[in-house]
Design a protein that fits this description.
Elements lengths: L11 H9 L22 H12 L4 E10 L2 H12 L3 E6 L6 H11 L6 E6 L7 H4 L1 H6 L3 E4 L12 H5 L6 E4 L3 E5 L10 E6 L3 H14 L19 E8 L7 H12 L3 E6 L6 H12 L3 E7 L6 H8 L2 H6 L3 E5 L7 E5 L3 E5 L5 H6 L2 E7 L1 H16 L1 E4 L1 H5 L20
Parallel strand pairs: 2-3, 3-4, 9-10, 10-11
Antiparallel strand pairs: 1-7, 1-8, 2-5, 5-6, 6-7, 8-14, 9-12, 11-15, 12-13, 13-14
Helix pairs in contact: 2-9, 3-4, 9-10
């Protein structure tokens, strides 16, 4: 038993953790990163700010296209048919059904000699191993599971169980990439982006690192071909691994939110913001920035997530942030729009445990045309959503009790 002399100033909880070996994890710190400097919302200065924060800048030479909803399976199928050398898929969720059947048939019919490597998270894909993987293997694909679940003879490690892949990546021939918010399954309200150009190499490296962890070994040199410029857009892919201290997703969000001058429109499938994120959104709203947040509504939202999500509303609404709840279908998109030039599309859930545990990714693009397309899409979504008004929310009464307790698992979120 170590001496207690000199440690009487330690908080009791921390002391209990130290003495008992408990895995006491704190997911929110009031001193978490907040960027108060003025950051330009485009150009080299923004790229440098991102590079300093996450090690990724925005390089020129990309062509980009927004791909949404039912067009996402079409784009996946097109990539499979166009492949001549390799197809690499990293997805969190692969559910049997019409979309799965469509893609399996495309893999079966792909060009001869195309190497096919598929990496799926088993926790989010409970039926994949039995119903889908055997057909893909028969079609000549190499299929692996990301961090396989423990068997009956192995005691589960809770943190390892929660440290899952949430990224969605498709890379064709090392030259073309697709990334977005959800994997293979029913067609929901989702947004992906198709990209060609130098940053596809970053998507490929992200896949390669996960593939190695799953026992797949190094990719061949042909998976990393020289990439010539294909367009005018500037882009960079930010890959983030879970961290209980400060993840790359949090750093990226702080930079991009800080850069907003007059418009900050955010769509997120799991919006339970940290205090630091909420503080930055409020700071921007108070400065006159048009801050809008689109989140899942009651009909299709996870009740537990919805409860935690709504617990954040009061403070945001009181300080000028506008919030809408999407109604027609499940919302799976994860996007951010800043002013007229910057867009992010990816898998990032704005929720503390997701930052702490999940493997996430987001493509950051500087391009006026893509920003315009996402802005039009966002405005259409608002016509299918219900705005939460401050007065109505504060007077909702006791009929709708809310819990401010954090989610117990990062897998609560889609």
């Amino acid at each position: 038993m170590p001496s207690l002399r000199g440690v009487n100033r330690l908080p009791r909880l921390l002391l209990a953790c130290l003495l008992t070996g408990l895995a006491c994890t704190h997911y929110e710190n009031p001193r978490d990163l907040r960027i108060h400097q003025d950051i330009p919302s485009s150009g080299e200065a923004l790229s440098l700010a991102l590079f300093q924060s996450v090690g990724v800048g925005l390089s020129p030479g990309h062509s980009v296209e927004l791909v949404q909803d039912g067009h996402i399976p079409e784009a996946l199928e097109a990539e499979i048919h166009q492949a001549r050398e390799s197809l690499h898929l990293l997805v969190s969720s692969w559910q049997p059904g019409a979309t799965s059947e469509r893609l399996v048939r495309a893999f079966e019919a792909r060009q001869p000699g195309v190497a096919c490597r598929i990496l799926v998270d088993p926790l989010y894909s409970p039926y994949f191993q039995e119903e889908v993987a055997p057909r893909l293997i028969r079609a000549g694909c190499e299929v692996r599971l990301f961090r396989p679940l423990p068997g009956d003879a192995v005691l589960p490690d809770k943190e390892r169980l929660e440290a899952r892949n949430h990224r969605q990546l498709v890379i064709r021939d090392g030259r073309s990439g697709l990334t977005g918010g959800v994997g293979v399954g029913p067609v929901w309200r989702d947004t992906s982006v198709h990209v060609q150009g130098p940053t596809v190499r970053e998507l490929q490296q992200t896949f390669a690192r996960a593939w190695q962890e799953a026992g797949g070994g190094l990719l061949p040199a042909s998976a990393f071909p020289p990439l010539a410029p294909t367009g005018e857009a500037r882009a960079g892919f930010v890959a983030s691994s879970g961290s209980i201290h400060l993840s790359h997703t949090e750093r990226m969000l702080q930079v991009l939110i800080a850069s907003a001058r007059h418009r900050l429109w955010l769509t997120n499938a799991c919006f339970v913001p940290t205090t630091a994120t909420a503080d930055m959104l409020i700071r921007k709203a108070r400065a006159g920035v048009d801050v809008r947040v689109l989140v899942p509504g009651l009909r299709y939202g996870n009740p537990r997530v919805l409860d935690a999500q709504r617990a954040s509303y009061a403070r945001l609404l009181e300080n000028g942030v506008r919030i809408w709840e999407y109604q027609p279908s499940p919302l799976r998109a994860h996007t951010l729009l800043v002013d007229e030039q910057i867009v992010t599309v990816g898998s990032i859930n704005l929720e503390p445990r997701s930052h702490a545990f999940l493997e996430e990714g987001s493509l950051v693009v500087e391009d006026a045309d893509l920003t315009r397309s996402l802005a039009n899409s966002f405005q259409r979504d608002l016509t299918r959503a219900v705005e939460v008004h401050p007065g109505d929310w504060t007077q909702r009464g006791l009929l709708e009790p809310l819990s401010a307790e954090p989610l117990t698992s990062a897998t609560d979120c889609p």
